[in-house]
Amino acid sequence: MPTETWRVVADAFRRLGTEQHASAASWTAGEIAVWAIVNVRCQIDMGGMSTVFTDCDVHPRDFIQSLRLLGETGLAAVWADACATLEREGFLAEGRWTGADASAHDHLFDSLSEVVADRLWDLDDRLAAALSERSPGRQGRSG
Asked: What's the total number of domains in the chain?
């Protein structure tokens, strides 16, 4: 993989951002992964871990599937467990924020931040490779 894979990922993210509402249903699994991973890592940088759950435009299901696609099964499992806890505690409902107070879950967000650390920023080579595969993303399933 060339050392400029970040540019491939950034260009794809920019293109997907302009197409988001028009063609997201036809994106490949690699395109969904770029959209989900880059959105989440930007959200973490801009607002912290809690804002991934309160402000991010990526459904946890898409993010978890994207991590699995890239071979990050351990991180996907940690994320899925965190989402399940947030659902049980009424912070999320069907993957979406309920409006509950985020500060009540700071311990969970801090733990998740420790696990994630910089791992999401080390995925560009795998994201670029996933873009070159044409495996279906959302075809045959809802949203």
From this structure: 1
Contact 109, 4 (CB under 8 A): no
Per-residue pLDDT tens digits for 87-141: 999 999 998 999 999 999 999 999 999 998 789 999 999 999 999 887 666 543 3
Chain position carrying tokens 């069907």: 94
Phi and psi torsions of 136, nearest 5°: -65, 150
* 143 within domain boundaries: no
Inter-residue contact 127 to 5 (CB < 8 Å)? yes
d(C-alpha 75, C-alpha 64), whole Å:
8
8 Å CB contact between 42 and 56? no
Nearest to 76 by CA among 109, 106, 115: 115
